[in-house]
């Protein structure tokens, strides 16, 4: 076994800046005890924390005394733009089929990653769900068993360790079920305010599973399904952290693995996520082309995804000012959407809801300067009987769209109220993108009503 040596370089870099271990811990979102273990050599930071520390100190992995190098794909090295995570920190979640040695974590790395995650969650997790119940849900086990048998998130580490320790790589049914439950519950967490939790969970297993998904086996399609959904989730996390380029890359990976899974619903969902990223980044033609890839098999996918595909086409056509085509696909979307989306077979990963009809309908009206109609569409979202199942990030996004129409209609009171709700929700969600969306709306409002007292009072909410 390799001798544990103190990381005097890491300690020196910290002390040169006059930082305490607690300061470093806060900046990389872990605990003082974890930083102490890193410096003493009792543990080595896993890749997730290595990338954060490299960004924090402005040094490479070698320069900070880590044995492992932070690995980026060839294209990323050429561009010098790694996929960024929370607050601009690089995250290395990609996999190269030719770099198998970089595709798995060692058992020790995995256990440490989980230990660090568990401690980080104890500091950062503000979700009202009890931590024990949360981990029980993530692992798909009863909270009662969790309490009686001493289950903890280390069970999660053991599941990954099985992959790392296997002399001939294989995945069994129990491991698959565990991570299928984890994936499903990551979608649930992201639906509310579990952004940070999902962001910390994905690096633990996604890269290892991406490696196994490319190896022929009896479980290959199910593993590929887990990975495809993992990259969809990571794409959403990237966007919420204002990393649009990283979101696109993750969604392209999702499409690849969805096709490997041979699941048409999953493929349509992955293409939908990718097309949406293109749209958000100002590429309506790419959006249109991507949604059109679904059309050859659109009759074979679930009603929810079919309706969502038509909605995407409608908005893409609206963005290129093709009104007739936009209205045609909007009608198709209304005809296709199921009455109870929650019962649709693809609901867990489709990431859409009845609210999508109102959301996209309103956006299409905005494209044609029909602001009053758009405003009415957005207002209807709050009147939906199932509004409690709308993801919080989506609810805030729709609220921002409604605020945009209020600004266009010069309604100062409505604008003020919506912007206040938007920034409050963004701060609770801890989403950099939603924060800046709200800030952009606020700046517009101040230009329109520079002397309005209520609008001025909102300034304090934008101090971070």
Describe this structure in words.
- By secondary structure, the protein is mainly α.
- Among the domains are: 8-70, lambda repressor-like DNA-binding domains (434 Repressor (Amino-terminal Domain), Orthogonal Bundle); 95-262, no CATH class.
- Helices cover 66% and strands 0% of the residues.
- The protein contains 24 helices and no strands.
- Helix 12 (220-240) runs parallel beside helix 14 (264-280).
Shape: globular
Main sheet characteristics = none
Strand content: under 5%
How many DSSP-defined strands?
0
Which structural class should the secondary elements be placed in?
mainly alpha
Low-confidence stretches: 68-154, 164-168
Number of helices: 24
Rg from C-alpha positions? 23 Å
Helix percentage: 55-70%
- End-to-end gap: 46 Å
Average of pLDDT: 78
Summarize it.
By secondary structure, the protein is mainly alpha-helical. Helix content is 66%, strand content 0%. Among the domains are: 8-70, 434 Repressor (Amino-terminal Domain), CATH 1.10.260; 95-262, no CATH class.
Keywords:
464 residues, mainly alpha, 434 Repressor (Amino-terminal Domain), globular
Q: How are the SSEs ordered, and which strands pair?
A:
Blueprint: H1 8-16, H2 21-28, H3 32-40, H4 47-57, H5 74-79, H6 107-124, H7 131-139, H8 143-149, H9 154-165, H10 173-191, H11 195-213, H12 220-240, H13 244-261, H14 264-280, H15 284-292, H16 303-319, H17 323-336, H18 347-350, H19 354-367, H20 371-379, H21 392-408, H22 412-429, H23 432-448, H24 453-457
């Amino acid at each position: 076994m390799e001798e544990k040596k103190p990381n005097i370089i890491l300690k020196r870099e910290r002390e040169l800046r006059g930082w305490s271990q607690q300061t470093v811990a806060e900046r990389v979102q872990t605990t003082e005890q974890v930083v102490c273990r890193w410096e003493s050599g009792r543990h080595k930071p896993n890749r997730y924390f290595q990338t954060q520390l490299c960004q924090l100190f402005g040094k490479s992995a070698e320069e900070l005394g880590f044995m492992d190098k932070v690995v980026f794909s060839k294209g990323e090295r050429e561009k010098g733009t790694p996929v960024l995570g929370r607050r601009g920190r690089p995250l290395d979640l990609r996999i190269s089929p030719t770099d198998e040695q970089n595709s798995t974590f060692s058992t020790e790395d995995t256990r440490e990653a989980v230990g660090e995650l568990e401690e980080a969650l104890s500091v950062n997790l503000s979700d009202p769900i009890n931590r024990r119940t949360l981990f029980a849900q993530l692992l798909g086990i009863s909270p009662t068993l969790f309490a009686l048998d001493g289950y903890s998130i280390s069970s999660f580490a053991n599941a990954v360790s099985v992959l790392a320790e296997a002399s001939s790589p294989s995945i069994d049914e129990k491991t698959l079920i565990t991570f299928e439950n984890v994936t499903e519950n990551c979608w649930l967490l992201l639906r509310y305010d579990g952004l940070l939790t999902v962001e910390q969970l994905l690096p633990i297993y996604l890269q290892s599973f991406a490696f196994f998904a490319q190896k022929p086996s009896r479980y290959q399609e199910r593993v590929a399904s887990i990975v495809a959904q993992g990259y969809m989730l990571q794409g959403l996390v990237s966007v919420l952290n204002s990393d649009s380029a990283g979101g696109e890359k993750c969604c392209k990976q999702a499409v690849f693995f969805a096709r490997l899974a041979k699941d048409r619903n999953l493929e349509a969902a992955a293409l939908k996520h990718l097309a949406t990223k293109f749209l958000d980044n100002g590429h309506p033609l790419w959006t249109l082309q991507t949604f059109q890839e679904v059309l050859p098999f659109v009759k074979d996918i679930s009603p929810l995804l079919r309706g969502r595909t038509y909605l995407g086409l409608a908005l893409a056509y609206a963005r290129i000012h093709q009104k007739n085509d936009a209205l045609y696909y909007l009608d198709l979307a209304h005809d296709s959407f199921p009455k109870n989306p929650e019962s649709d077979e693809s609901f867990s990963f489709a990431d859409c809801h009845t609210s999508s009809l109102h959301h996209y309908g309103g956006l299409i009206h905005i494209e044609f300067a029909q602001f009053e109609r758009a405003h009415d569409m957005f207002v209807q979202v709050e009147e939906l009987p199932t509004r409690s199942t709308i993801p919080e990030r989506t609810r805030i996004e729709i609220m921002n769209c409604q605020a945009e129409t209020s600004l266009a209609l010069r309604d100062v009171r409505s604008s003020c109220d919506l912007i206040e709700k938007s920034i409050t929700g963004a701060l609770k969600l801890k989403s950099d993108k939603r924060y800046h969306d709200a800030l952009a709306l606020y700046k517009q409002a101040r230009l329109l009503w520079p002397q309005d007292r209520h609008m001025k009072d909102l300034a304090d909410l934008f101090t971070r």
